[in-house]
Design goal:
Pfam families: Thioredoxin_2 (PF13098). The chain is α/β, with parallel strands linked by helices. It contains seven helices and seven strands; from the N terminus they run H-E-H-E-H-H-E-E-E-H-E-E-H-H.
């Protein structure tokens, strides 16, 4: 009987570990900035709203892709940010909130969070990348498939964006890029 329970425990643990690897380690912006101070990494922020269809698709298709999960967890601090939520955030010494938040509209269109405004977010979803000091690198509006996101994840992680000075440089980067992430 003890052997059966031990086997069941081992199998359950194996499935739990495997399930954990299929999830991005999401955190708040405050948690990411705090972690960044201890161990510098870039931040990838998923700016979403609860009513946004493409945001849900991005979460389901891209952010649960095993290649994306592994790469993001290893190389970035990942932040989930509801652009119409009521979270208080301290960013660059300034407090951001959503003073016009209406709890009765929690799952439908609501007021925009001050941080979303400060980051000039105009579309959902938008993925915003930040450097190791919390400075904005670039926002990427719209849904991105795993290979489309890979292009940017690998560009920003090693500061490759700093050597792209023209449209021609960008085209050359894309044409020479070796895609590794599976589309599904």
């Amino acid at each position: 009987m003890k052997q059966v329970l031990l086997i069941i425990a081992v199998v359950f643990t194996a499935f739990s570990i495997q399930a954990q690897e299929k999830e991005i380690n999401w955190m708040t912006m405050d948690e990411a900035l705090s972690a960044q101070a201890k161990s510098p990494k870039k931040i990838m922020m998923d700016v979403y709203t609860k009513w946004c269809g493409p945001c849900k698709l991005l979460d389901k298709k891209t952010f649960h892709n095993e290649d994306v999960v592994a790469y993001v967890n290893e190389n970035y601090y990942a932040v989930k940010f509801n652009a119409e939520g009521n979270e208080n955030i301290n960013y660059k010494g300034q407090n951001f909130a959503n003073p016009n938040y209406d709890s009765s509209k929690a799952n439908v269109r609501n007021a925009q969070h001050e941080l979303a405004g400060a980051l000039q977010i105009t579309a959902y979803p938008t993925i915003v990348f930040f450097d190791e000091e919390g400075n904005t690198i670039a926002p990427l509006p719209g849904y991105k498939s795993p290979p489309q996101l890979e292009l940017y994840l690998k560009l920003f992680v090693n500061d490759g964006h700093k050597s792209i000075d023209s449209k021609e440089d960008w085209v050359k980067y894309q044409e020479g890029f070796d895609f590794e992430f599976k589309a599904e």
